[in-house]
Amino acid sequence: MTVTENIQNDTTNGTANGTANGKADDTANGTANGTIPDISLALNPSDVESVPGLLKDIASTGNSFVAQEDRASRLQLLAQARQLVRALETPRETMLKNCWGEPGAYCAIAACMTIGVFPELAKDDGSPKKVSDLAKTLNCDEKLLGRLMRHLGTMAVIKETGPNEYKPTNFSTSLTIPVIGDGFPALAGGGMAAVYKFPAWLQKYGFKNPESTTEGPYQYAYDTHHNLFGYLMAHPPLGMQFNHHMGGYRQGRPSWMDPGFFPVEERLAAGADTAEGAALLVDLGGGHGHDINEFRRKHPDAPGRLILQDLPDVLAQITELDGKIERMGHDFLTEQPVKGARAYYMHSVLHDWSDETCLKILGRVKAAMRPGYSKVLINENVIPDAGAGWEATALDMMVMTLLSAEERTEKHWRSLVGRAGLKLVKIWSVENGSESLIECELP
Ligand SMILES: C[S@@+](CC[C@H](N)C(=O)[O-])C[C@H]1O[C@@H](n2cnc3c(N)ncnc32)[C@H](O)[C@@H]1O
User: Fold this and answer.
1) What tens digit of pLDDT does each residue of 210-256 get?
2) What are 416's strand-pairing partners?
3) Could you tell me where the Low complexity compositional bias lies (predicted)?
């Protein structure tokens, strides 16, 4: 049956969207201006004209990828494949994928993480397993598990191998790695409500860009006085899981510590004070120390102390840290105890806060800096004026709803750094969509 026949049938039944003519009823949903398009728009592929061109692009990029297996052509091919899916999907299908498919998969993944499904599924080299056997081993309701796994099968999170039988995929097995899997329960338990309740918050507070951290979307959704970090820490194991999630975010992306990004030897190690007690790098809000550990591993000969700072409860969760790295409980809104370090480093910290709070954090750092020697290194997204990458804009939605904060453009960073009384020396970047390193000094 064609799309037109479908519409005609609905019209005959008088059931198409509650109207007799197959058109949406614009008085019923409160938009009486007659601008609602005909339903056929939603039932045909979104952009069928682009399909031939996209297929050609995909073939050509696909050849480059097969020949080189390089990051750039992989990312380009992925973007083109997404465009093709979107062009072929009807708006109705996209709507259901967004409203049901993805949230349903999120729900099933988080539930299966809690039940312990993925490690069990990965056992015996990932051989196919019956839901009934898994349910017995995991002491879980068989019907429930079957329903969760059935949806995960249709969403390609796991692979169906027969009736009520599945095997893992690389993705489902990767979910057994805490830095990959733990974001699901962390955000299910202490994040997503702020996303889903955002429209209601906007309605209540008058459609303004969120800036309040006492009456923001997060406080509204969780009925709490805490900010995201306080709430997660007050609800174990969410804090620990969230910090693992942060460890996953940074994986597989260009790192400023690698050759071809920021010249670590020339701009940091060279000229660093070698006197006893001199600090090379202070990682503020460094979480579990993923970055400073990486620095230690990649630049083992750089002279000076390496200091990881975060709230004491966060530092107490750390299970693995290079012996040379010092842990120091510190609230970055208070006086910086390490004076005159070569560099004060912050990764994914300032994007969690409003400009006003960032100015306080930077003010504390500035007061500890040694003129002509110390640097501030800010590792964050610098969103271009046009052509932003989806990971950066997605993170912007997260920090907007969870923290009343934002990802910043270059103009915004320059203004913020200037207002903090610092000089922006250079923004080091290697590709659009990955974080940059913003190098600042005292003027
Ligand atoms: C988004 S996480 C980034 C962690 C780490 N820099 C990374 O990139 O993986 C922000 C960090 O800021 C820490 N934090 C929040 N408020 C803080 C405060 N007042 N003082 C110090 N650290 C704080 C959190 O505990 C968390 O580890």
Assistant:
1) 999 999 999 999 999 999 999 999 999 999 999 999 989 889 889 99
2) none
3) 11-22
Q: Does residue 328 sit in helix, strand or coil?
A: strand
Cβ–ligand 1 contact at 239 (below 6 Å): no
| 267 DSSP assignment | I
Give the number of other CB atoms < 10 A from CB of residue 224.
Answer: 15
Hey, which residues does 441 pair with through a beta bridge? Answer: 375, 423
Q: Which helix (H) or strand (E) holds 44?
A: none
Residue 74 makes CB contacts below 8 A (sequence gap 6+) with 65
pLDDT (tens digit, 9 = 90+) per residue, 324-371? Answer: 999 999 999 999 999 999 999 999 999 999 999 999 999 999 999 999
Nearest CA to ligand 1 atom 12: 285
Q: With beta carbons less than 8 A apart as the criterion, state whether 291 and 347 touch.
A: yes
Residues with a known catalytic role: 351
pLDDT of residue 250: 83
Q: Element (H or E) spanning 321, and its range?
A: none
- The reply to whether ligand 1 has any atom less than 6 angstroms from the CB of 316 is no
